[in-house]
Amino acid sequence: MVLKEKRLPLMRMFQKVLYATDEVNLNEETSNILNLRDEFPNFVKRFENYFKRKNEWVLMFRRDIITRGNNTNNYAEACIRILKEIILNRTKAYNVVALVEFICYVWEDYLILRILDHAHNRRDNIQRNYAKLCSRTLNFNIDQVTLISETCYSVPSSNTENSVYTIDIQIGVCDCYVGYTGAFCKHQAFLHKHLNLSLPNAPPISVTERYVLGKLALGDKCPSQSWFLGLKENENGIQFQEESERSNIDNVVNHASNHIESFTRPKDILNKNDTNAFQSFANDEVASNNANDVLEKEFLRIKEFLNDVPLRR
Question: What is the DSSP-derived secondary structure letter of residue 312?
């Protein structure tokens, strides 16, 4: 039996074998464990049995596998937990037909709602992780990025001089330690942010990427791309927003002028001050009516969209 105070050091030694970077480092860390044969015979014996399958769990032998940085069965465990706890509510289905109904309808509705959470930018952790990656690229220079081929770019290293990393945007991999297995690294984040490139492993940050998720969840019932804009976002930048606001103001002014010209002149308006007061009142009234029309149209659009989105069961 291994004493409690000895367990953590043994676990650290095993982790060093797991994260070995090359053959020399692997042999060195393996020898350190094998030298403990007299003190911890059972531990060393079990380690030897596991080490026979080293190609399956030592990370240096798994670098050619696209795991997106996840080398565990967390995805499978999460799916089973969702199926048991959320879809089936920890109860058994009445029969096979009921189980198929749960999977085809209840589970599909659940997945649609989860996808829409990301499409509507309701997951703050995605934005925070993306901003954290981008903060590590402040010393990068966009002029140093080189286009190698249609899908490959080279980005200089931030730590080592005269060293570059190659990124394949079609597969979503990078030569660095983090992105080698397909995880989203800071070099890919730099290209994604400054060159507006699409990567298969990039989080849904831009409105276009969130719109694609909306199309996946709702299909033909998905609203337009502008629906997924955030409060501080627009499709064509600040200029688009200013032109739109200026256009709306002009429309209100023109609409107000037309109404003013159609009003009959009352007999009690005898001087210029009364005319200005009446025109100011007309402008306020027309602008208020126009704002109410816009709000009513927006409310009807939201109501129509909510009717198309499946509700939780």
Answer: P
CA–CA dist 242, 235 (Å, integer): 12
Collect contacts of 75-82 with beta carbons under 8 A, ≥24 apart.
82/110
Provide DSSP, 47-67. Answer: HHHHHTTHHHH-GGGSTTS--
DSSP output for 238-268: HHHHHHHHHHHHHHHHHHHHHHHHHSPPPTT
Contact 217, 309 (CB under 8 A): no
Within 13 A of 201's CA, how many CA atoms are on the CB side?
26
Burial 49-72 (b: 16+ CB within 10 A, else e): eebeeeeeebbbeeeeeeebeeee
Q: Which residues of 4-19 are buried (b: 16+ CB within 10 A; e: fewer)?
A: eeeeeebeebeebbee
Residue 166 · residue 148 · CB < 8 Å: yes
Cα–Cα distance measured from residue 19 to residue 298, given in angstroms and rounded to the nearest whole number? 55
Please provide residue 168's backbone torsions phi and psi, each rounded to the nearest 5 degrees.
Answer: -105, 105
Could you identify the residue written with the tokens 């999977």? 103
CA 104 to chain centre: 26
pLDDT in tens, 20-63: 988 999 999 999 999 999 999 999 999 999 999 999 899 889 88
Whole-prediction pTM: 0.65
Residues 183, 184, 186, CA angle at the centre, nearest 5°? 130
pLDDT digits (tens, 9 = 90+) for 232-268: 776 654 334 334 444 443 443 344 444 434 434 334 4
